Amino acid sequence: MGKLLSKIFGNKEMRILMLGLDAAGKTTILYKLKLGQSVTTIPTVGFNVETVTYKNVKFNVWDVGGQDKIRPLWRHYYTGTQGLIFVVDCADRDRIDEARTELHRIINDREMRDAIILIFANKQDLPDAMKPHEIQEKLGLTRIRDRNWYVQPSCATSGDGLYEGLTWLTSNHKL
After folding, report:
1. Mean predicted confidence (pLDDT) in 28-53
2. Residue 37 annotated to the active site
3. pTM above the 0.90 mark?
4. Is 21 annotated as a binding residue?
């Protein structure tokens, strides 16, 4: 009986791939969720992987570096991904088109066809940061009709919006 109850009420797991351009805030988000504090980061060469447990769900989060020379390697992490967290620096207006191109390249890959998409519209605390509706428009999200997506405003350093994003992932994925 104990095994049955733990199967029903125990931890579920979800494989999450967290991508985005360099300096968007991916690693800061990962460690804010994992440790509950802001950490000093350096550009990620390769990847970080951590398990974050929230609301009885174990999120296995893969944070992969976003520098342009590393991006071709992203596809090696696609297999088995159930949720994509795409992090956007909302204060970086100069590279929003580049972010759109990369996002659509990811979601158009057949390995990612079943993944739900959470956009962290990050760095909302900065002056002139693009708001979620502007991010939605500039990333061309309204053209994505064949899967669930959501834009969550966030601030990685304070943690604002991060758990709301995880809540959306748990609510919209069949665990």
Report:
1. 96
2. no
3. yes
4. yes
